[in-house]
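FAQ: What does the model actually see?

It sees only this:
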Amino acid sequence: MDEIAKVLKCAARWAAALSSVCLGTAALAQGTAYVSSEKDQAVTLIDLATLSVKGTIPTCKRGRHIQLMPDRHIMLACSESNVADVIDPATGKSLRRVPLGDEPEAFDLSPDGKTIYVSNEDEGAVSFIDASNGKVLKSIKVGKEPEGVKVSADGKTLYVTSEVASLVHVIDVASGAIVKNVKVGKRPRRMAITADGKELWVTNELDASVSIIDTATRAVVGNLKFEVKGARSEDITPVGIQMSRDGKRAFVALGRANHVAFVDVPQRKVTNLVLVGKRAWNVTLDKAEARLYVVNGLSDDVTVVDVAAAKPIKSIPVGRVPYGLVVVE
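And it is asked to produce this:
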């Protein structure tokens, strides 16, 4: 019996080792990924250890941008319900709904989590909203179809993209005044700020590019064009972007090109292109920055990418037309 036990123990170790190889370097990651869906009125939960769906949470209509709050709750913007759903990961239940105005698409939170900055597409405005009660504190007119919203680390400056005007509006948070309009590529969508706060990277969906803005001079100082072998330039439609914590790498979802670009930030150079699902829309790194989760809006799945190897690990079916993802570890 002792020999049988040894054999079984050895087999278990080999199975664990094989699983680790198959799932990549972060196979033992713990936690949950929460995926929003534009069609299902639910958030899909992915177990990070097994990379499998473990459940759903009912929510409001047309869930889009999803973000982790400073208090570790999850906030989800629902465009058709005109609210944000605040979800407690510990219980898997909605805590409250916060009014966000008409057609809320994207948002960001002040560093203290007390104010929501939200783009209201139909109104052509960005609203400052009290996160506790939904009271509108300010509403600022911007260019048509505002989309991306990003606040600086010190909470003093807000950046908002206008898809139609091809502008990034630079807004002083204290006064609510637009201090500069920066011309970028066609249909700017999302943004990321480098770790040192010196550069703002803006994805241009209809220009197959990223515009790089100097945050001190508020001028465009660089432009990175994307190319994918076998893909037409009009099918390279970058939207989601995330920076590594050290600011040395950026990860850009290339939309209908069905790839994610790994970018060397100091060199402003693409180092890898990883094939993922259809219409790669948004990207999220895990806490260890070992895995990249790519939300694919037309194949209704999430592709998990091993960052070190720059290779996909697994595709996980989720809700219909998934939009955003947040990781809670």
